[in-house]
Amino acid sequence: MSALRTPPPPPPPSPSVGEDAGDVGYSKRLRPRHMTMIAIGGAIGTGLFLGTGGRLATTGPSLALAYALCGIFAFLVVRALGELVVHRPSSGAFVSYAREFMGEKGAYAAGWTYFLCWATTGMADITAAATYARFWSVFSDVPQWIPALVALALVLGINLISVRYFGETEFWFSVVKVGALVVFMAVAVFLVATRHPVGGQVPGLAAITDHGGLFPAGFLPMLLVMQGVVFAYAGLELCGIAAGETENARRIVPKVLRTVMWRIALFYVGSVVLLALLLPHTAYSADQSPFVTVFTRLGVPGAAGVMNLVVLTAALSSLNSGLYATGRVLRSMAVAGSAPRFTARMNRGRVPYGGILLTASFGLLGVGLNYAMPAQAFEVVINVASVCVLGTWGMIMICSLLLWHRARRGLATRPAYRLPGAPYTQAVTLLFLLGVLVLMSADHGVGTMTVLAVPVIVGVLVGGWFLVRRRVAEAARGARAATGGAPRRGPGVS
Q1: Which domains does the chain have, with CATH numbers?
Q2: 399 in Cβ contact with 95 (< 8 Å)
Q3: What residues contact residue 217 under an 8 Å CB cut-off, 6+ apart?
Q4: What pLDDT, in 10s, does the model give residues 193-228?
Q5: 38 touches 238 (CB < 8 A)
Q6: Alpha helices in 134-162 (DSSP H)
Q7: What is the model's pTM?
Q8: Integer Cα distance of 37 and 332 in angstroms
Q9: Which has the closest alpha carbon to 234: 117, 370, 376?
Q10: Bond before 423 cis per omega within 30 degrees
Q11: Looking at residue 30, what DSSP letter applies?
């Protein structure tokens, strides 16, 4: 029997001097078209396709202002990440940059915060996929946890094969999402221009002015949904992680980011404005995609079903991206000793399957959540994920600020592609992220509970560091020995 066993894959080569060990062993099989659609599609997911319905019902048309404001800061975060990528492409992305500028403690905090972000986002995506599936009558009587489990198994299988399979799947997922939004916006503009009734409502400004105006529930609800809007933009950082598996990342990433942000802003702000012009905000609800609501009211045969298939694709795409990202980030941490050793393992397709399986195991908690409380599952996990997104974006801006500071001292050179307005843009963005966290505490209910959970998360991270710091120190000594005594990137372990 031993002769029939498949031999283990060959170990990756040792890192060269100054190279992050977590970047060794990957195949460079992602192409520019993959990067473009990963950057666009990564930010177009359940936050827009499902979450917008409930937010429109709560805040009204002012939701478009919230998307515009958050979009500005999302652009600054992505631009800062782009500068870091051009500085040094890495599959560990901001975890690797945190290691370079803040040492292993920073990398540890960044990595586990990001893991928690995508682990909880995966639960939201699984919940959204199960919710969308129940749109069709064939699934209406099926318990919600069953389609949630099927969605997880499908996307997990895709991720475990190779990065090329991930790239191709995410490319076509993104094509479907972007294509559907373009079609919706074209139809919506036609309906508004011709004043064609939608479910008895004549599109136009009257859908806003006759139903409470821009702020039907006041100004505060618009501020309180900021955490959900930030969550909707989550995924933009995926292009930074994917850069580590792309040839010529320093040339490709700036080209991608120069065009992707205005497209995403158009899709988000433009879609919300059109939704507000087509129907009163009271026509939308949290349990149905607003795009499905419009086509259902429009009465186009089969259109609502097609759009529901699109939003189901968006949920699967986001889940696909989350498994990909956490697999790479966990491997970067594992080789440094701050994540379980098995998350560093790669299969023959050069896929870090250990980290992917760990994230998928948390997805099973999402399946259980859909079993225990199907009605509240989405909102519960989206709030936890939003806090982690704030932490991840904050870490990116801190790394960008430290790169600027190091360049001012003559210890580093900033690339030509850089965040404009540094260091003021980093400071303003960090204040904005802190402000969103404060606003969450004012949202009595799930939001307040989520903010109260922040000290618990911090406490767990601190306790976890004391558990792994000895292993981190051993990994650092091993890295120095492997590179002939050259220090690991970052100021070391303390």
Answers
A1: 26-470 (1.20.1740.10)
A2: no
A3: 58, 59, 60
A4: 999 998 888 999 999 999 999 999 888 888 888 877
A5: yes
A6: 137-140, 145-161
A7: 0.85
A8: 24
A9: 117
A10: yes
A11: B
